[in-house]
Automatic annotation (TrEMBL):
The organism of origin for this protein: Campylobacter geochelonis
GO molecular function: hydrolase activity; transmembrane transporter activity
Its EC number(s): 3.6.3.-
Annotated TM spans: 21-45, 255-281, 301-327, 339-363
Designated name of the protein: Integral membrane protein-permease, involved in lipoprotein release
Domain ABC3 transporter permease C-terminal: start-end pairs: 259-372
Length: 380
């Protein structure tokens, strides 16, 4: 029994040595297949969070407004906070609050928008600076941002002091322009001040006109949250063009990854099949000689499957761990972040690679075992 084991092991080692380059080709092919499978499994497991993060950078995906504009144009901040307290904190990435009113600035009239400056760039990522600086503190009541179109009409620039006169009670405040902003939307025509200053100036303490937020979840869950939180005073509405695209993009990326993995595994199988056929063709006389000295088909089958299993196992283990490195490269290139390691990716990559390797080797081994031994021994 021990002698058979030693013969078995020696035969495998001798086979690797004699078939050198062709065994190396099989090893590399299986390793690449396992590497790609492992990498895609790791990326696949992280892709929901990565894509959600990317889409969340495109701005708010939830709009909150009064339920009936004909009856009420304002939302109570207290009621809004109470509603938001029902959303898990970890899902709320940013929230913006907005209060609008008209006022006279200089010699012209304009719409003044009160905002939370700290979350402004998160909920309005396309609001860019043309000149000056952004305001990053919610309680900055001395400075303001001005839209590029309004700045041209009113003749204001960065550093100018603007006198804002309330159209209803002639109350006056002064702010200094810190930045000129643009986004191609309504903000180009607005004067933007802090929400607290706007509420005090327009006498709307604790009130806003609308709010928006970035909620880190899919469209279905966001729709359910909106439905649960909406009431007679406040209406929650998901921004479908952002939220729906999340699921659609994810499905397409996952499908693409699955197709690429299958194609690479098929190419791997073809490469293994071709190389193994070449190896077995060169060893037909050896097989015939083994049969002639008494080896059964089962003995030869065990010998060659042992060789393939050893080679495929080593290649798939190396490839599976190399796949984690490939996943990091893909993560940095696509999402600018790392991909988490999952041991299950190694296990699955090894199993898949072994299955494809044995499927690829089935026909060459079968052909070798069924060859006419007498003709081979005669050299025909």
């Amino acid at each position: 029994m021990d002698a058979n084991k030693i013969f078995f092991i020696n035969s495998i080692l001798k086979s690797f040595k004699n078939s050198g380059l062709r065994s190396l080709v099989i090893f590399i092919a299986i390793m690449i297949g396992a590497c790609v499978s492992s990498a895609f499994i790791n990326v696949y497991a992280d892709i929901d969070a990565k894509v959600s993060k990317e889409l969340n950078s495109y701005g708010a995906n939830l709009i909150i407004s009064p339920s009936d504009f004909e009856k009420e144009n304002f939302i109570s901040e207290k009621n809004l906070s109470l509603a938001f307290s029902k959303i898990p904190k970890e899902l709320v990435l940013a929230q913006g609050k907005f209060l609008f009113s008209s006022a006279n600035i200089g010699t012209t009239s304009a719409v003044v928008m009160g905002v939370n400056f700290e979350s402004l760039k998160k909920v309005m990522p396309y609001l860019d600076l043309q000149s000056g600086k952004m305001i990053n503190l919610d309680f900055d009541n001395k400075n303001a941002l001005i839209g590029v179109n309004l700045a041209k009409i009113a003749g204001f620039k960065v550093g100018d002091e603007v006198e804002i006169k309330n159209s209803f009670d002639n109350n006056v405040i002064k702010v200094r322009i810190k930045g000129v902003v643009y986004d191609g939307e309504k903000e180009d025509n607005l004067l933007i001040i802090s929400l607290s200053l706007a509420q005090e100036f327009f006498k709307k303490d604790g009130l806003i006109n609308y709010s928006n937020a970035i909620i880190n979840t899919d469209f279905q869950n966001l729709s359910q949250i909106s439905k649960n939180l909406s009431n007679k005073q406040i209406h929650f509405e998901p921004v479908s063009k952002i939220s729906k695209s999340q699921g659609a993009i994810l499905d397409k990326i996952k499908l693409l990854m699955a197709l690429i993995s299958i194609i690479i595994l098929i190419i791997t199988a073809i490469c293994v099949n071709t190389s193994l056929s070449s190896i077995l063709l060169s060893r037909l006389k050896e097989i015939a000689l083994l049969r002639a000295i008494g080896a059964s088909k089962k003995n030869i089958l065990n010998l060659y499957t042992g060789e393939i299993f050893t080679l495929a196992l080593l290649a798939s283990i190396v490839g599976a761990f190399a796949g984690f490195l490939l996943a990091q490269i893909l993560g940095e290139a696509i999402f600018s972040s790392t991909i988490n390691f999952r041991f299950i990716s190694v296990v699955v990559a090894i199993i898949v690679s072994l299955v494809f390797a044995f499927l690829a080797s089935f026909y060459p081994i079968k052909k070798a075992l069924n060859a006419n031994m007498a003709n081979l021994l005669r050299g025909e």
